[in-house]
Write a structure and sequence with these properties.
10% of the residues lie in helices and 31% in strands. The N terminus is likely disordered. InterPro entries: Big_10, LD-transpeptidase, LD_TPept_cat_dom, Transpep_catalytic_dom.
């Protein structure tokens, strides 16, 4: 949640004081090596010697983390990636062998591919969105990796929920939310106003592109510390408790309830980069949100980077597959 994914992004003004909680690691306990008893001058000595000579089962690679969580913990959106993090680096010459042992089986299959984003992290994305209301089984057959005989195979089943696809038009100042293909709600919004350029990037602009929801908090603390402003006397200083915050990038963008200024919603862009919504609209959006839901934002000159959060849909299918080792 890593060289590619932890690149230093130019963050937006909605950057939160806290960061999303890490997903619990997948248990991957090693099989203990057999301990031979001390040989004694008895008839059991040949047996003990045989046990002592038994080969030690080795473990060279295990899984440290899988995102998202399993079917009993959460339902995920139709854009969700499978993010697998190993406990150590995988050398380039071994990546194809490892990738070949990672399987994804869906009740409603769609084409997909893995992409290595670092030596420890590989991500699975589909060519088109997952079909909603189904189960997806991930299996890592690491016991079949040469020299990895002590490792255990790992499985996780994901539950794909309702298809939530939101389209944010920053020029018309509206967010349309489609659930299972049908328009469920229109929410007046206010996006980034622009006007603060850092390193050639207007960080007050909301990024245009295909975002995925990454997590949510009923109340998120947002501060100006992301741009080095920590003095309360500074005109740019702020520290706000923001309700119904749904995170959509690593650079601090959220869909959240507007902190006042409701008269701007549906009329003009006045935020520091986030998508502000009405209290009722923000709460409703928060309630239905699943990790991996799609949020398409249009109308700004600032493009979303493909590795800013879970923004993997910013790459077309040909570009995505180039990251596979197979």
């Amino acid at each position: 949640m890593l060289p590619a994914l932890l690149a230093l992004f130019t963050v937006t003004a909605c950057a939160a004081e806290s960061v999303p909680a890490p997903v619990p690691a997948v248990p991957a306990a090693a099989t203990a090596a057999p301990v031979a008893p001390t040989p004694s001058a008895t008839a059991d000595a040949p047996v003990a010697a045989a046990k002592a000579a038994a080969p030690v089962r080795k473990i060279k690679l295990r899984i440290a983390d899988i995102t998202p969580m399993g079917e009993k913990v959460e339902k995920v959106g139709v854009g969700f990636p499978i993010i697998v993090t190993f406990d150590r680096d995988v050398k380039d010459r071994h990546k194809a062998d490892v990738e070949a042992l990672l399987e994804v089986q869906a009740d409603k299959p769609v084409e997909g591919a893995w992409r290595w984003v670092s030596d420890r992290k590989v991500i699975y994305r589909t060519k088109t969105y997952w079909k909603p209301h189904q189960k997806v089984l991930f299996t890592a057959r690491l016991s079949e990796l040469p020299g990895n005989t002590g490792a255990k195979d790992v499985t996780r089943r994901f539950a794909v929920g309702t298809s939530n696809v939101s389209v944010v038009d920053t020029r018309k100042h509206v967010m349309k939310v489609y659930r299972d293909g049908k328009l469920a709600r229109k929410i007046p919004i206010s996006a980034g106003s622009g006007g603060l350029v850092r390193n050639g990037v207007d960080v007050y602009l909301t990024t245009s592109g295909v975002h995925l929801t990454m997590g949510k908090k009923a109340v998120e603390t947002m501060t100006s510390s992301w741009m080095g402003v920590t003095d309360p006397k500074d005109p740019l200083y702020y520290k706000l408790e923001i309700p119904w915050a749904v995170r959509i990038s690593d650079s601090g963008e959220y869909v959240h309830q507007s902190a006042g200024d409701y008269h701007f919603l549906g009329r003009s862009n006045q935020s520091h980069g986030c998508v502000r919504a009405t209290p009722a609209g923000a709460k409703w959006f928060y309630t239905i949100s699943q990790r991996g839901d799609v949020v398409k934002i249009t109308g700004t000159k600032r493009k979303l980077e493909w590795n800013n959060g879970w923004s993997y849909w910013q790459l077309n299918w040909t570009q995505w597959k180039k990251g596979s080792a197979l």
